[in-house]
C-alpha cells in the first residue's frame, strides 16, 4: 500500500476549508460559507476514502458525493452572481 501525498494533501486542505467554512457560517450565517463548507466536506470524504483505499468499493457513493459537492459550489456561485433584488416598499 503506497502513500499518496497528493490525495492526502487534498484531504487536509478540503477538511480545513470545511471546518473554517462551517465556523464562518455559524458566526455570520452566510449561506455562501455554508454551501462551500458542505461541498468541501464531501470532497474531503472522497479523499479520505481514497487514502483509506475504500474508493473502489464505494465508487458509486463517491460519484454522488462529488456531484452533490459541485452542486453546492454552483449554488454558492449562483447566489453571488445573481443576488436577490431587494424590493422597496
Count of alpha and pi helical runs: 3
In percent terms, what proportion of residues is strand? Answer: under 5%
Shape: elongated
Q: Which structural category do the helix and sheet elements fall into?
A: mainly alpha
Rg, rounded, reads: 16 Å
Structural domain count: 1
How much helix is in the residues?
over 70%
Describe, in short, the structure shown.
The protein has 3 helices and no strands. The protein is mainly alpha-helical.
How would you describe what is shown here?
With 89 residues, the chain is mostly helical. The chain has one domain (5-81). Helix content is 76%, strand content 0%. The protein contains three helices and no strands. It has helices spanning 5-28, 31-51, 59-81. Helix 1 packs antiparallel against helix 2 and helix 2 (31-51) runs antiparallel to helix 3. The longest helix has 24 residues, at 5-28. The chain is elongated and about 65 Å long.
Amino acid at each position: 500500500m503506497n502513500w499518496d501525498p497528493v490525495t492526502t494533501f487534498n484531504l487536509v486542505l478540503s477538511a480545513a476549508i470545511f471546518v473554517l467554512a462551517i465556523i464562518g457560517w455559524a458566526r455570520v450565517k452566510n449561506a455562501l460559507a455554508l454551501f462551500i463548507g458542505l461541498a468541501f466536506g464531501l470532497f474531503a470524504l472522497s479523499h479520505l476514502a481514497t487514502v483509506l483505499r475504500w474508493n473502489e468499493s464505494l465508487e458509486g457513493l463517491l460519484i454522488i458525493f462529488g456531484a452533490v459537492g459541485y452542486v453546492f459550489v454552483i449554488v454558492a456561485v449562483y447566489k453571488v452572481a445573481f443576488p436577490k433584488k431587494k424590493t422597496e416598499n
